[in-house]
Amino acid sequence: xxxxxxxxxxxxxxxxxxxxxxxxxxxxxxxxxxxxxxxxxxxxxxxxxxxxxxxxxxxxxxxxxxxxxxxxxxxxxxxxxxxxxxxxxxxxxxxxxxxxxxxxxxxxxxxxxxxxxxxxxxxxxxxxxxxxxxxxxxxxxxxxxxxxxxxxxxxxxxxxxxxxxxxxxxxxxxxxxxxxxxxxxxxxxxxxxxxxxxxxxxxxxxxxxxxxxxxxxxxxxxxxxxxxxxxxxxxxxxxxxxxxxxxxxxxxxxxxxxxxxxxxxxxxxxxxxxxxxxxxxxxxxxxxxxxxxxxxxxxxxxxxxxxxxxxxxxxxxxxxxxxxxxxxxxxxxxxxxxxxxxxxxxxxxxxxxxxxxxxxxxxxxxxxxxxxxxxxxxxxxxxxxxxxxxxxxxxxxxxxxxxxxxxxxxxxxxxxxxxxxxxxxxxxxxxxxxxxxxxxxxxxxxxxxxxxxxxxxxxxxxxxxxxxxxxxxxxxxxxxxxxxxxxxxxx
Length: 491
Ligand code: GUN
Ligand code: ZN
Description:
Strand order of the largest sheet: 6-5-4-11-10-9
Bound molecules: guanine, zinc ion
Strand content: 15-25%
Low-confidence stretches: none
CATH class of the largest domain: Alpha Beta
Helix content: 40-55%
Mean pLDDT: 96
Number of helices: 22
CATH topology of the largest domain: TIM Barrel
Distance between the termini: 60 Å
């Protein structure tokens, strides 16, 4: 891996970074969304993508250019940037997607990399094999070997200052993805797309998307720029960024518009069925759905709305990373669609991995759903509890300290974190905003905090005063901790 990427800010595994693209002479801020530009059909002029939507980078397909007589010679002559009228960074794909769709293409990695260099691409792609989900392991391994060879051919090619993608494949086998990530990272290639996600994305299998991304990330260098190939629905951007993706490319804005579909942050609607627009972008502000349906330019305007809502979400994601509330945004998005909830739950299965890059301090932690109980901050607090020394006789309580007692100390208990010395009350994440009506998941997490403290202090005599916890939370408290239900004590 060469060094063209710098991470500036973290939240969970999400980050704000800067990708230097030397051939374009630009540095692109990530997370970045690369609109897919079909060289044959410019639904929205590339110049407008930059000026009106803020696209710093786009992606187009060198294989289509190469196999279309009408445009090949023009692009070779003018160069991709003049042809498209875009002076930002341009990534090109290789025809692998066509390979996956049609089973055969007539170009090698060596040839297509050379072609990409000649047309002036800034980030080129070898001919990787996008192995679909759910295939047998033998096929996934065999095709991974072909992808490895493609990466080797790309390394051997003359690329000058053009960056090169090193796609990470492996179908739905996390260990193969991880291994592929490790291998890609060890090449001298530059950007690391997680590939063959389109079938999963199209069927909203976000849990498996998250598994594939996390597996690839375990193999990749932590500082590697990661692209989620084919992803760009606004609903899942926050989730994918929180899982560690930096680049996205979206054809959805144009493909969906062609079918009369209207993107929102919680799914896709049909223009045909809409009575009101929930959006204030220029398109939605100026037209009602009925008006839009009657226009000549319905498809273009719908594509523009789709781009507005997608770039708006991307800015929201970046702001959330800066404030440290990205997981709260993911939580909000998870309430919009059950498939997203599966994605969030899967992401939180990897809270230990997220914890490694999660900042120690940020804007207040908001407890907004029982998934909040599984956030990395909770886990980190529990790990920290195992290192805290405690006095001999300690009261842990959800209520105020009793006015007279004979404990050596009285600590606060706050679900979902559990116990902590009062002196830590003003430190992140214990400043959390938690609802008055705490749920069972938060109580269970707090009980696990008590267990962590008890385990690391086997000599201490611990008493817990809890506010009428659910039975499974009380059961998660070790037997040797004496428990009192404060509600029954009238406190
Ligand atoms: N576009 C969407 N998925 C893929 C992939 O896996 N490989 C390449 N090269 N392009 C893609
Ligand atoms: Zn709109």
